[in-house]
């Protein structure tokens, strides 16, 4: 009976899969999850929603959030439905947490955020790079 051992590309340090002709088993290696690092870079598109503002407008609260983001020095792009942050995982999520804190400090008791986060390990790619790639395809008529 032949035995094939494969290791998952992304979970290489965590899983070992052994396959025989009759069954497959996966065993988890002992890993110190408390010391598992976060990605060195990521982007997060987030929309912060202050809940319970006195009026339907949230522009004052969003201006507070944008001041925190601007003063953090993190690369960012504000758009009509939120903000895209780019940096290390820890830096991005620290700024999002600070955004929540500044809105709470303004008297808003409840804050919700909707997030989409991405990270890559194969190459460095900014938000502008991603947009430019699509614009180049459209300009070349390859859509």
TrEMBL record:
Protein family: Belongs to the UPF0045 family.
PANTHER family documented for this protein: UPF0045 PROTEIN ECM15 (PTHR33777)
Record-level GO cellular component terms: cytosol
Source lineage: Eukaryota, Fungi, Dikarya, Ascomycota, Pezizomycotina
SUPFAM superfamilies documented for this protein: MTH1187/YkoF-like
Protein name, per record: YkoF-like protein
Annotated Pfam families: Thiamine_BP (PF01910)
Residue intervals of the Thiamine-binding protein domain: 44-135
């Amino acid at each position: 009976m032949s035995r094939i051992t494969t290791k998952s590309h992304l979970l290489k340090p965590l899983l070992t899969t052994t396959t025989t002709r009759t069954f497959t088993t996966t065993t988890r290696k002992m890993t110190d999850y408390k010391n598992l690092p976060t990605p060195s870079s990521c982007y997060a598109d987030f929309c912060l929603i202050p809940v319970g503002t006195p009026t339907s407008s949230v522009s004052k609260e969003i201006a507070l959030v944008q001041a925190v983001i601007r003063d953090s020095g993190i690369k960012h792009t504000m758009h009509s439905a939120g903000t895209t942050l780019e940096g290390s995982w820890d830096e991005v999520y620290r700024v999002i947490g600070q955004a929540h804190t500044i809105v709470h400090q303004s008297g808003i008791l409840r804050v919700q955020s909707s997030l989409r986060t991405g990270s890559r390990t194969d190459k460095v790619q900014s938000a502008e790079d991603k947009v430019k790639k699509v614009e180049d395809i459209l300009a070349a008529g390859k859509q």
